[in-house]
Amino acid sequence: MRKITSFVPETMGSRMKGHDRALGALLLVALLLIGPVSIALAAESGASQSNSASNRHGSDLVELELPQAQSGSCNTNPANVLSNGGFEAGTTNWTFFTSGSGRLDGGSPAAECNSAAHVTLTKVSNNMQLYQSGFLLKANTRYRLSFSAFSSSGNDIRVYVQRHGSPYSLFGLDQQFNLTTQWQNFSTEFTSTGFNGTSTDTRLRFWPVRYAANNDVYHFDNVVLEEIGSSGPPAATATPPTPGPTAPPSTGGTGSCSAVPGLLQNADFEKGRASWNFYTNGSGSFEATGPAFQCSTAARVTLNSVGSNTQLYQSGFSLRANSRYRLTFAAYSSSGKDLQVYIQRHGSPYATFGLNGTTVNLGNSWSTHSVEFTASGFSGTTADTRLRFWFSGNAGNGDVYYFDAVSLEEIGGGGDPTPPPSSTATPQPSATPPPGGGGGRNEMVVFDWNGPVTEAQRGFPYDQPPRANGDWTSPVNFAQGTLQYRVEIRSQPRPQNMRIQFCFWQAKNGNNFALENCGPQQSMYGVPGAVATWSVGVADMWKLGGKSIEWNRARYRNGAAIKNSAGEPVSNYNGWNWNGENPAFWYPLNMRYTVVVVAKGATFSGWSNYR
Q: What is the DSSP string of 435-463?
C-alpha cells in the first residue's frame, strides 16, 4: 500500500462556507474512488483546530491508504486487431500448444490491471507456442506490435506473425526479444507481406523454442497489434539480398512443366499419388495438390504426430550395381526442418544401396537439391529397390513437407568395382592422416577441428592456409569428387538448435575472399553425443556470384560457419552482433568437425577410418 496525502488549505478549513465544504467533500469522494481506502482525517471542527495533523503552513491533512498502482492504463486499445490482449478475460482467444509438457494460466502478477498470461514449461520440446489466430491483416501495411513480458530465468522469446494454416508462411515478422526477470515493455514495427488483399488466416506466435529451459515460466501482458500505415505496394527499393550461404532460400518454384527424366514413375505427381506410398506409425497424410514447384501438382505430407517410422517412398525401379546415379528433387517444409534420403533394398533386410541417410537441408520455400552416389550392396541389376524420404528424427508434430520433380538418373556406366590400390599406393587414411593434395590417394582430410570453438573465433573456426591445399584436378580428380562431412557435439553451454556449414575461400585479383564456395547447412542440436554425417559433390556447392573455386591452385582459407536455426551466423563479424543470439549460450562449443574429400568415381572408405 502507498499513501496519498492531500492538503486542505487553511482558508478552506473552519472558515469554509457551505458550498465550499460541499466542494471539498466532492474532492474527497474523487480520491476515495481511486481504490480501497483507510482515511485519517485531521480537520478543524467548529472553532477548535487540531494541530497534530497540520503542516508547517497550517494546512489540514487527508491521508489515503491505497493499493500499489499498476503502471499504464486499464483501458482497451480500440486500434488493437487482437482480442483480449490484456488477458483481463483470462486466456480467452489465446491457445497454448506444446509437444512437451506445460500449461497456460491467466491471473496475477500483471504488468497492467489485474491479469496476465503465464506459460509454465515443465518440459521443453521442439514445438512450444502461445498464439492467437484469426485476426485481420491488410497486405503491404505497416503494423506495430507491442507487449509486456518477462521470464522466470530471463530467457528470451521469438515472435512471429504468419499464416495460421499450411504452409505457415511468414507475414512479415520474425524477431527475437531479450527478456529479463522483470516486466519490460517491447515494441517493433513491420510491413505485412506474403499475401494479397486482406487475410484472417493469421497467427501471432510467441515461440520459446531454443531459449527456454525446463520449468521456465513466461509472462505476457498488454499485447497490442495495431495498424500504423496505409496499405499499398511495397517500395521499389525493397530488393531482396544477393543469394548467398546466409541468404534465405528462393521464394517460389521456377521450373518448367516438361517431363521429369529418370527411372521413377510419376516423378512430378501430376498423376496424383500413383506409384508413391506414405507410411507412419504416428499419424499423418499424403496427398497430391498445390502449390507445385512446376506444373500444377506436388506431394504434400502432413505430419500430425511424428512416429519413429515415417516415410514417403517409391519402390520397384531398376538399378545397376556399381553404377553412378544422381538424385535430384525440389522440396521444402513448413518449418524449414530437414529430412534424410535413402536408396535401399525394398524387402528384408532393407540394406542400403549406396545412399545412406544423407541429410537434406530444407528451407520454408521451394529449392532444388541434388546428391550423387554409386549403387552398391548387390550384384548385376535389381528392382528390389526403394527411394525413401525419411522424416523421423527431423520433423516436428504439425510439420508439412512438399516434394516435386523427383528425378533419379544414371550418370555413369556399371561394371566391376574399381580395383583396390596396388601395393605401392598410398595406404588408406588413418585416424590422423597427413595433409596432402593428391599423390594417388582416393581420399584425404580437408579439415579436422577437434576441440572448443570459443567466442574469440567469432563463429568461424578455420584453417589458414588450409590442409590438402594442392591441385585438386590432377593427378587425382578431387574437383569433381565428393565432400564427406561429420560433426560430433561434445558440449555446449546451453544446447542450441543450430546449422553448421563448411566453406572454401580463394584469393583472386588481390582479394583474398574473391571466390567463395560453401556446402549445405546441416541442422544440429547442441547436446553431448549428437552426431551428423552428410555429403555434397564438390562441384555442387553454392558459389558466390556463380563462380567456382579454381581447384588447380591453392585456396586461401577454409573453415566452418556456426549458424542459428534461421541460417544466420552466430558471429559479430560484419556488424551481425551475433544475430540476436547470446554468445554465452553458444560458446565454447566443443566439437569434432571432420571434412574428407573423395576422388571422382571412388567410394568413401567410411568414418570408422577417421575416429
A: P-S-TT-SEEEEEEEEEEE-GGGTT--EE
Same domain membership, residue 562 and residue 525: yes
Last residue of a domain, one of 412, 435, 465: 412
Cell of 115: 491479469
Whether residue 511 sits in one domain with residue 558: yes
DSSP code at position 241: P
In SS3 terms, 540-597 reads as HCEEHHHCCCCCCCCCCEEEEEEEECCCCECCCHHHCHHHHCCHHHHCCEEEEEEEEE
CATH number of the domain to which 112 belongs? 2.60.120.260
Three cell numbers at 227?
A: 495498424
The count of domains in the chain is 4
Per residue, what are the HEC states of 483-499? EEEEEEEEECCCCCEEE
- For residues 153 and 216, give the distance between their C-alpha atoms in angstroms, rounded to a whole number: 6
Residues 366 and 497 in one domain: no
Phi, psi of 37 (to 5 degrees): -130, 150
Grid coordinates given for 203 = 497467427
From the first residue on, what is the mean pLDDT of each consecutive set of 10 residues in the chain (611 residues)?
Answer: 35 40 45 39 34 34 33 69 94 92 93 93 90 94 94 93 85 89 92 90 91 93 88 32 29 48 88 91 89 84 91 93 90 91 91 89 84 90 93 91 92 46 29 33 90 91 88 92 94 91 92 91 86 91 93 94 90 88 93 94 88 70
CB contact at 8 A, 347 and 390: no
**Closest to 306 in 3D by CA, of 280, 286, 341:** 280
Q: Shortest CA distance to 326 belongs to which of 277, 273, 264? A: 264
170 and 110 within one domain: yes
Q: How far apart are CA 536 and CA 520, in angstroms?
A: 7
Contact status, residue 597 vs residue 472, Cβ threshold 8 Å: yes
SS3 23: helix
Name the amino acid, one letter, at 176.
Q
How many C-beta atoms surround the C-beta of residue 392 within 10 A? Answer: 17
Beta bridge partners of 319: 382
Structural domain containing residue 217:
95-227
Give SS3 for 332: strand
Instruction: Give me the residues paired with residue 143 across strands.
Output: 190, 227
- Asked whether residue 32 is assigned to any structural domain, the reply reads yes
Cβ atoms of residues 299 and 288 within 8 Å: yes
Pair 398, 331: CB distance under 8 Å: no
Q: Answer for the pair 411, 537: CB distance below 8 angstroms, yes or no.
A: no
Statement to judge: residues 397 and 517 lie in one domain: no
Tally of CB atoms within 10 A around 556:
19
Characterize 185-194 residue by residue with b for buried, 16 or more Cβ atoms within 10 angstroms of its Cβ, and e for exposed.
ebeeebbbbe
- Cell 547447412 belongs to 521
Q: Are residues 465 and 597 in the same domain?
A: yes
Task: Report yes or no: 300 and 400 within 8 Å, Cβ to Cβ.
Answer: yes
